[in-house]
Amino acid sequence: DTGVSQNPRHKITKRGQNVTFRCDPISEHNRLYWYRQTLGQGPEFLTYFQNEAQLEKSRLLSDRFSAERPKGSFSTLEIQRTEQGDSAMYLCASRGPGQETQYFGPGTRLLVL
Amino acid sequence: DQQVKQNSPSLSVQEGRISILNCDYTNSMFDYFLWYKKYPAEGPTFLISISSIKDKNEDGRFTVFLNKSAKHLSLHIVPSQPGDSAVYFCAASANNAGNMLTFGGGTRLMVKP
Predict the structure, then answer these.
(1) Residue B73, exposed/middle/buried by CB under 10 A (0-12, 13-18, 19+)?
(2) Interface of A with B (CB under 8 A)
(3) What is the pLDDT of residues B28-43, one digit of tens each?
(4) A109 falls in which pLDDT band (50, 70, 90)?
């Protein structure tokens, strides 16, 4: 399967804990995007990478959110000191060079208790 | 400020008839538009897209129409099938903004047998 994969698919954590999600893009896709989707809303852009460079991070929701893509392949999204309002679906998408379409992974559903 | 809006939260259609989903946008810098289909607990699945240099794109049962002067696009599904029942999101991107996607709030389509 050469689609976008995300792990874990589900995460339950207690308020104040740190969580990290992983995204593996489609092979050779140089751009990787993170989005968040809350109930009843469309996905909301958070940040994106071109290869290992993070080109836009002003939309990250707070300084508790950070993302990396150290070797230009997989990416991680970390949320520190989670809050109940962080409960959402976190989506990753990737796009190949010269392409317009972003392809999404299955998402990681986070529940903060 | 919602730059992409889907004003109908839900739509119910009889199997075999046409489904028309609408989307409006406000940002004139958007130059690429996409429709995604989403089932619960899954990531969005790409359906069809259109560049701003075109006014129509067709792929099988799916056709997207773009009216740039009205800043309006629509997705036509003909004939509708029960398996089309899902939430449909329209999304827009601008090449000069890293192609990050701005999504509408979604329309839930129900196709009745």
Answers:
(1) buried
(2) 4, 6, 31, 33, 35, 40-45, 48, 50, 55-56, 59, 91, 93, 95, 100-107, 109
(3) 999 999 999 999 888 9
(4) very high
